[in-house]
Amino acid sequence: MDRESDMRQSFLTFLFVIHLGFVAFGQATISVPGSVATIQGAIVAASFGDVIEVAPGHYVENINFLGKAITVRGVNGASNTTLDGGGLLPVAIFVFGEGPGSVLEGFTLTNGLGTQVVIGPNGPVTAGGGIYCSSSSPIVRDCIITGNQATRGGGAEISGSPLFQNCTFSNNTATGAGGGLSVLPTGFPTLLNCRIMRNISNLYGAGIASAAGSNLLVVNCLICCNVLAPVPANMAFATGSAIYLASGGTAMIVEGSTIAANTTSAGATIGCDGSIAFLSVNNSIIYHNVGATIASVSGVAQMSYTDIENGYAGLQMIDADPMFVDLAMDDFRLSPGSPGINAGANSSPFMAQLDLVGEERVLYGAADLGAFEVSDISASPFVGGNLSPGAMANGPVLLINGEDGGADRRVEATIGQSNSMSMLHPPTNLVPSHFAVYGFFGIPGPHDSVSLPFGIGDMIVLPCPLYPWGHPLLFTFTNSTAVDVCGQLIVSHPTPWNSGPQIPVFFPLTLTFQGVVEETTGNFSVTNAIVLVIS
């Protein structure tokens, strides 16, 4: 089995174990500070499968899981529950072989100082400012690891197979390697839906530094705005503003991630000091970084379906501005028209079902590049319609409240507002043309699209005569019976081209509309689609 297959199998096995849920027998809930005054005191008192629920607050502690398969949870989330390391030791420690049954979730971990691991020629070497995980495999999720420092792994130093899910590593500092994270050999750690941003390193890997012989899987992650700031003595060999791969058997897989706006005065965005074992980058974006993009990477490097600035050899690679929504404000979502939309591959074994912010990962045909899937309906190949806007009085055929929704096809309405719908009459037909308008509750995905017969075109919603029982959220809004035999929700008046005003809706609702019209006698075409958002 090759290195990639081994990593993939270990990762899938790990996820399978996670999905078992670790249902404990007779588990107890311990509240802090209600039942026990401190979090560490609760850990000492806990038994296998217990849940420690921590109330909102600021706790100055350095916690150690002591090898226990327990859950320690901030009940009101990371923004309300802080673990402060007091500038003494790592904030959280896993060193007793903890497995996936050991879960830390819902905390901000800050003001940690790495544990001393060795005395070097320049003094003590510390590791893991926020989290120190040695040969252990816990789950850390929904946590913010920020404002910590160490020689290695300002945010965390890890070995074993931990899973970090929905975590943010920000504003951590390493004087040596790994401002955000330092990864040591053994195991197959995973970063899933994480942000590694604004970390600093003075030597290697401001975002992530991987040591020789280590493995790492990075899925749906944003690695941005990290700064490699080497001191003068390190300028000749410092590298890796985003990622550093040490020479000697290092393996890393990057899937569906965005690596952007990282800066360095030396080295590259992804750097190596020799020969690695394996680097795979797929469905990702590496763009708008300061410094060389990928440098000194030798060994097996597989690049595919990725937008890399200045180009790189591989399968279906592109080099084009990804058109981030707002680079200056660190908004790395893709704008409509981005070359990264629908440019990815759907066959990757590491692709997650949801993107970094919980959107469905594959919308409208193919995966988008980077950490963010474009949920905007304007990205769909179905919504444009095949009517020529120029033939329709220089505007879209379908209008809601006199609007077509613009680039993102959304029309905003307030709760209780009466809305109207109209369509422009095709000038090629001298009599009122036959038509039908179909609706969908919500914003449809590709599974709700259909190609109409006889060359009519593609629609984002499915007309009920073709499949009346197929989807309970689809309906016929209004029609002329010559087009649609389904019962209409709203009768058109005063002409077949105007349906309103409607009875007001008194609760939030999202609806998508699209129509079919008779452009010339006997020839039907599809209109534009509009999302009506009532809030």
List keywords for this structure.
mainly beta; Immunoglobulin-like; 22-stranded parallel beta sheet; ten-stranded parallel beta sheet; 2 helices
Q: Short summary of the structure?
A:
4% of the residues lie in helices and 38% in strands. A hairpin with a 4-residue loop joins strand 41 and strand 42 (457-459). The longest helix is centred in the first third of the chain and has 17 residues, at 3-19.
Structure description:
With 535 residues, the chain is mostly beta strands. Among the domains are: 172-375, no CATH class; 389-534, Immunoglobulin-like. It is built from two helices and 45 strands. The strands form seven sheets. The protein has a 22-stranded parallel β-sheet that branches. Strands 3-6-9-14-18-22-26-30-32-34 form a ten-stranded parallel β-sheet, with no helix packed on it. It has a five-stranded mixed β-sheet with strand order 38-45-44-40-43, with no helix packed on it. The longest helix has 17 residues, at 3-19. 51% of the residues are buried.
